[in-house]
Amino acid sequence: MNFLKQDKTYASVLMALAAVTLIIPFCNLITSADSPLHFSAYSVSLIGKYLCFALLGLSLDMVWGYAGILVLGQGAFFALGGYAMGMYLMRQIGTRGVYGNPELPDFMVFLNWSELPWYWYGFENFGFAMLMVFLAPGILAFVFGWLAFRSRVTGVYLSIITQALTYALLLAFFRNEMGFGGNNGLTDFKDILGFNIQSEAVRSMMLLLTGSSLIGALLLCRWIVGSKLGRVVTAIRDQESRVRFLGYRVELFKLWVFVFAAMLAGLAGALYVPQVGIINPSEFSPLNSLEIVIWVAVGGRGTLYGAIIGAVLVNYAKTVLTGLMPDAWLFCLGGAFILVTLLLPDGIVGLLHRRIKPNLTLNASGEQPA
Amino acid sequence: MMITANITQESGASLPLDGEVDTRHGPILYLEDVSVSFDGFRALNHLSLYIDDGELRCLIGPNGAGKTTLMDVITGKTRPDTGEVFFGQTIDLLKMDEPAIAQAGICRKFQKPSVFDALTVFENLELALKTDKRTWPTLFSKLNGEQCERIQEVMLLIGLAGLKNQLAGILSHGQKQWLEIGMLLMQEPKVMLVDEPIAGMTHQEVERTAELLLSLQGRHSIVVVEHDMEFVRSIARKVTVLHEGSVLTEGSMDEVQNDPRVIQVYLGG
What we know:
The complex is a heterodimer. Chain A has helices spanning about 1-5, 10-30, 40-65, 75-95, 105-110, 125-150, 155-175, 200-225, 230-240, 240-245, 250-275, 285-300, 305-325, 330-345, 345-355; strands at about 185, 190, 195, 280. Chain A is an all-alpha fold. Chain A is built from 15 helices and four strands. Chain A has one domain (about 1-285). In chain A, a hairpin with a 2-residue loop joins strand 2 (about 190) and strand 3 (about 195). In chain A, helix 3 crosses helix 12. Helix content of chain A is about 70%, strand content about 0%. Chain A has a two-stranded antiparallel sheet. Chain B is α/β, with parallel strands linked by helices. Chain B has a single domain (about 1-270), classed as Rossmann fold, CATH 3.40.50.300. Helices cover about 40% and strands about 25% of the residues of chain B. Chain B is built from eleven helices and ten strands. Chain B has helices spanning about 1-10, 65-75, 100-105, 120-130, 135-140, 145-155, 175-185, 205-215, 230-235, 255-260, 260-269; strands at about 25-40, 40-50, 55-60, 80-85, 90, 105-110, 190-195, 220-225, 240-245, 245-250. A six-stranded mixed sheet of chain B has the order 6-7-8-3-9-10, sandwiched between helices. A four-stranded antiparallel sheet of chain B has the order 2-1-4-5, with helices on one face. In chain B, a hairpin with a 3-residue loop joins strand 4 and strand 5. Chain B starts with a helix and ends with a helix. Chains A and B meet through helix 9, helix 10 and helix 11 of A and helix 3, helix 4 and helix 5 of B. Chain A: This is Urea ABC transporter permease subunit UrtC.
């Protein structure tokens, strides 16, 4: 925990996250709906959503900020985690669906399917579904990364094929025959673990869970980045071929971080779906994945908490601006990206640090054993 | 053999038996009839070269003679079109990739100093340290006392002990060269390939580098590529002259400098 003393921003971000995570559910628990201290269901879910995006941004910062792999398809892993959670929630509906089929989700009945496809087996079990939240994105990242890194595909080429990957999944999940609800996706959820998913208590609980996951993930990522593996990965980012001549299998280190980040994104997706109540193929859209890159760039790449700050700020701006003038949002987003690239190469965090200490580095050298 | 005994003693841990480098016949590196072409240009042309165990060898030759390509072939960066490259009697380097060759004990300093600018001097050396380099062990790795001492020792040797927590990016050109030599030493190599070690160094630094390289011979086999003839003269017992991708001649510095073919290559062109 030495880094908390060294880097005040870390401490502040962790404190702020802990405050949001604890105070909002607590206030809602002890106050009645008309109290001024009471947060509406809408705002609780909205904040929960921001925290999911922060977790997603954090996952991209691990792979982009530290390993230097610009992934333009991180949204695919988020969506896969979301679908795994969505499948569990669909199976919880049971006979309460429009068609009342105990076994099949509504969209399958509508397609005249007579039995559950094999890949839906096991999703009625919460533990299994949670496992798939990590495994589905993890396995996809493993196979994709293994092929790409072993053939030494890097830079722009890798970025483009990650974008192609998410686009291919978008098209695939749009198809009704895939058995994931086609373009409507999965929605109309009722329960999670037997509790009503719309209820205020569950919403507060989800916020608490999301916040604690984010805090846990931030600490875990900080530990990884501060480990020797983190330093190897930073070295790969700066001079990939040199690391090979030190005897490290560069492709395996990249793969490790890529798979880890994909699983983190999957977790973010799984926490997101119960709070917004829907998962559909648009989550795979390349535009979503590009937005994640912008969050991280705006916040400050290679700092971990910068990704969190960026994700929350950009999404808050999105909520406000799409309300005020919906057509202008994409222009604002693009403008923000250009401004940050030109004026703030280290993002908002870089701006804060430039005023405090001129020589901001990615790693805390003082943590070395003497 | 004295030399072999020295190596095992120095490195502390010996390699597993099947990975042991067999140098009973003398040479530690065998290159036989190696040819490499890039788009029709023959960078190496039926080159044969033998480096003895514990030897300090200098490679000289005009630009384009194939010195760097030779190092690329030995370290696995470039695959030759024909020829054989062996490490000791038994290890075929052409079947191994860069990390495997590095782990077997052939390490390289690049022409352009290649240190990790975003890491400190200490961390650069830590990454080079000879140890388990797989992903999970690296994640959980903690330096033990012996390893810390080893890093400290190397920092003293390369004169950077006072800059332990400085980022490598702010070091001078000469210091970066030294740091990279230090990184080679951390890997406890059997063979060190050193490409232009004194570029950008002051006169004193050059002298210290010569001393350092001389003190390392016997323990490591060292191949130095250098343009500075004065420096080569100060360290070399045996010099190999490359020209147009093959060995032109070999011998002591005096023999080589008086060889009419060498004079022709350098002056007549």
